[in-house]
Design goal:
Helix content: 25-40%
Mean pLDDT: 84
Low-confidence stretches: 1-11, 331-337
Radius of gyration: 22 Å
CATH class of the largest domain: Alpha Beta
Number of helices: 16
CATH architecture of the largest domain: 3-Layer(aba) Sandwich
CATH topology of the largest domain: Rossmann fold
Bound molecules: adenosine-5'-triphosphate
Shape: globular
Oligomer: single chain
Length: about 325
């Protein structure tokens, strides 16, 4: 992971793992922003940091790219301590997307996207073709938008440019600090959806900060819940966090409607039973095997049916009943019983 590797490569470098080991930050005024956090972000996964305002999320992110130096602990990227690397060089290899994007107002969109490649000394032609490739990847037409200035785009479009710029030099790590919070809920939802598609293509290691539990559940392969003082309360995949909150504090944070959220991250397969028990298959609505229980519930509600047939490549493979959705084992309840 050095600058020459980036210079020599085009796109498609692999992602890197990130290790936080007993990471802590006390600001000079004595504020303990981050207590003691240890966690591992596997290469190519998207990890969400979530927690109440002031719990240290941005501080963790900014320690990863050395905008802030830790008071204790270590950060390893692919096993290499970031403290041993030149901060400027390190930052050129780590994409960073912030709320309100921070685009340069007097530069065109294409020039903004080419910022890091330019710093890395790529030639003009290569920078331009890379910028256009990235704009296309985030759903902006290079011919239409490439020559515009940031104020000539909508908030959602600017946000996409921010993501394109962060990906331009094909970083192995992407840090995102509330990347979608400055846009309205409908644009936000569309950006999240597009971002998931983008991530399926580029498979970067991403650490994303948000306040929004729905965003965390939708985007995260894993979620780290932090508390005041920068303490790690739980680190788990969304489904586990929702079904087995590690403490009352996490349960409260995750929210009372977590049963519904859990449906959105539980595969249809988990509540499926053999099809033999269901009558009149052909009249029942269907849901694809790749769907979630939330999809199954939506189909049941719109068709006013108590059962839904699960299909794989168009062939019925099982059925899910409405009661089965709410009989899903709740390990927390079992533990209490
Ligand atoms: N430069 C600083 N000096 C002193 N305290 C700071 C400094 N920067 C941040 N803090 C404090 O450190 C704590 C963590 O701040 P941080 O910005 O990391 O939290 P956050 O979880 O990202 O918050 P938010 O969700 O509101 O953005 C807060 O109490 C904040 O006031």
């Amino acid at each position: 992971m050095d600058a020459t590797a980036i210079k020599d490569s085009g796109a498609g470098r692999s992602a890197a793992s990130i290790t936080l080991a007993n990471l802590g930050k006390v600001y000079p005024d004595g504020t303990v922003a981050v207590g003691d956090i240890s966690l591992e972000v596997p290469a190519g996964e998207l990890v969400v940091l979530i927690g109440p305002s002031g719990c240290g999320k941005s501080t963790v992110l900014r320690m990863i790219n050395r905008l802030i130096e830790p008071s204790k602990g270590r950060i390893l990227i692919d096993g290499r301590d970031v403290a041993a690397q030149d901060p400027v060089e390190l930052r050129r290899q780590i994409g960073y997307v912030i709320q309100n994007v921070g685009l340069f107002p007097h530069q065109t969109i294409r020039t903004n996207v080419g910022t890091v490649p330019r710093l890395l000394g790529w030639d003009r032609k290569r920078i331009r073709s890379r910028a256009d490739e990235l704009l296309d990847l985030v759903g902006l037409d290079p011919a239409r938008h490439g020559g515009r200035y940031p104020h000539e785009l909508s908030g959602g479009q600017r946000q996409r440019v921010g993501v394109a710029r962060a990906l331009a030099a094909d970083p192995v790590v992407l840090l995102m600090d509330e990347p979608f919070s400055a846009v309205d809920p409908i644009v936000r939802s569309r950006l999240q959806e597009e971002f998931l598609r983008l991530q399926a293509t580029v498979r970067k290691t991403i650490v994303l900060v948000t306040h929004d539990i729905d965003e965390a559940v939708r985007l995260g392969d894993r979620i780290a819940v932090l508390a005041e003082g920068g303490l790690l309360l739980q680190y788990a995949p969304p489904a586990e966090l929702l079904s087995r909150p590690a403490s009352p504090a996490v349960r409260e944070f995750v929210g009372a409607d977590r049963g519904i959220r859990r449906l959105a991250v539980t595969p249809v397969r988990d509540a499926m039973r053999p099809i033999g028990h269901v009558e009149e298959i052909s009249r029942l609505p269907t849901v694809d095997l790749s769907g979630t229980l939330h999809d199954a519930l939506a189909v049941m509600l719109t068709s006013d049916s108590l059962n839904v047939i699960v299909v794989e490549d168009g062939t019925p493979v099982g059925a899910v009943s409405r009661s089965a959705l709410f009989d899903m084992p709740n390990e927390e309840a079992t533990a209490i019983a």
